[in-house]
Design goal:
Blueprint: H1 8-22, H2 25-37, H3 45-72, H4 75-93, H5 99-126, H6 133-162, H7 164-176, H8 179-185, H9 202-236, E1 239-242, E2 245-248, H10 249-278, H11 280-300, H12 305-329, H13 333-361, H14 366-404
Antiparallel strand pairs: 1-2
């Protein structure tokens, strides 16, 4: 049995995805090991929270900066530079640094990730025609998700095997391995916009897309990720019985949250192909509505049903929406930068919103209800966009028909 060789556009996407995925090893290690080792490092719990969120806050400024870098630097030059800086940051994590230096390193990593994400998405989108863009973005997102999963698993294994310092030094070396695929995937000159800016309707590609990105980041990366463990603990205490097995609530929470990335690896390429067939708008409408239904179910039905609802939410939200929204945003660098900033803002504000609601209401599941309402609002936005675009297409057909009579 023989397999067809990937075409040039597919190879560009694969290599770009591998390069960007390799940059995530150090960042995922911070999320994995810092909550465990922070006391030995002389850090307080509040400082841990600041460090884990600093890279997100700084990206509210650096996403646009990364787009402007693209006007002056070649894609290859800025990606390789970001990979080298990311490897240096990961190595310095292992020293370990005092809090203020650690904070500066997290902010520098935020800039690196802005550059890598912008270049990876735009290069992948530019490698294929408009009718294959969903497939391309699905493949790219699936490969990048491998970096999230492998970085998390490697960090836990290496911490136990070789210790804190050697773990980060090893992950820094693995980050440098992304330079080789980056040199092949990214152009030595500045890449053109995927679609001409005048061809993109700003009313739909800018403001409303930013709203959808902010809501998606607020609910998925913010509310659900930050409160799921609290919901599980409130429902079942410190352990959860699954058949004859008794699992710790932290273990169940970790399994569900890791499963979101595994779903992305497996499901993103298939979702991308589906988008090219049914269209982005239809997929987004179903995904926002399905995610809202899953969250309402988790809110209405108490108990251990929360992990099941979270898996259903991640299936609709994390897999379908991230591919469809990225595909919609990738038409121009300016639009994608705006979308990425809105996404990061939601991820940064989401935990604050979630825990404020928990503190005010006293209920652990109130965030699920708030997330459902936000997703219903986005479904309505998508529906209004669809009707507006349908009306415009109808008027164009009528105009052409009138001209031909």
């Amino acid at each position: 049995m023989t397999f067809p060789r990937p075409d040039r556009s597919s190879m560009v996407v694969i290599l770009a995805g591998v390069a960007v995925a390799s940059s995530l090893f150090g960042d995922m290690a911070v999320y994995t090991v810092l909550p465990i080792t922070y006391r030995r490092l002389g850090l307080s719990a509040m400082q841990v929270g600041v460090l884990l969120s600093a890279n997100r806050w700084v990206r509210l400024l650096t996403n646009e900066l990364a787009r402007r870098f693209g006007r002056r630097w070649s894609d290859r030059g800025r990606v390789v530079t970001a990979l080298v800086l990311g490897a240096c940051v990961a190595a310095l994590y292992g020293t370990p640094p005092p809090f203020l230096l650690f904070l500066l390193l997290r902010m520098l990593w935020g800039l690196c990730w802005s550059i890598l994400r912008q270049a990876g998405v735009m290069t992948s989108a530019a490698s294929a025609s408009a009718d294959r863009r969903g497939r391309v973005m699905g493949l790219y997102n699936g490969i990048v998700k491998v970096g999230y999963v492998s970085g998390t698993l490697l960090a836990g294994f290496l911490l136990d095997a070789v210790g804190f310092r050697l773990m980060f030094f090893t992950l820094a070396a693995l980050t440098l391995s992304g330079i080789l695929p980056a040199r092949s995937a990214f152009a030595s000159s500045r890449a053109p916009e995927v679609d001409p800016p005048r061809a993109v309707d700003g009313r739909f590609s800018g403001r409303r897309l930013a709203i959808k990105g902010f809501v998606f980041g607020t609910v998925g990366s913010g509310i659900i990720m930050s409160t799921l463990g609290h919901v599980l603990y409130a429902a079942s205490g410190e352990s959860v019985r699954v058949g004859s097995l008794i699992l710790g609530v932290a273990t169940v929470n970790g399994i569900v949250l890791a499963f979101r990335h595994l779903l992305g690896i497996v499901g993103s390429p298939a979702v991308g192909r589906l988008l090219d067939r049914v269209g982005v708008a239809r997929a987004e409408l179903v995904a926002f509505a399905g995610s809202a239904a899953a969250l309402l179910f988790a809110f209405a039905v108490p108990g251990i049903v929360a992990p099941v609802a979270a898996v259903a939410f991640f299936s609709c939200g994390e897999v379908v929406l991230i591919v469809s929204l990225s595909t919609e945003a990738s038409r121009t660098g300016r639009v994608y930068s705006l979308f990425a900033t809105a996404l990061d803002a939601g991820a940064a504000f989401g935990p604050l919103i979630a825990w404020l609601l928990v503190g005010v209401s006293g209920g652990s599941r109130i965030g699920f209800f708030a997330g459902a309402l936000l997703f219903v609002a986005c479904a309505l936005i998508v529906g209004m966009e669809g009707r507006a675009l349908t009306g415009r297409a109808r008027r164009r057909r009528e105009t052409r028909h009138g001209d031909s009579v």
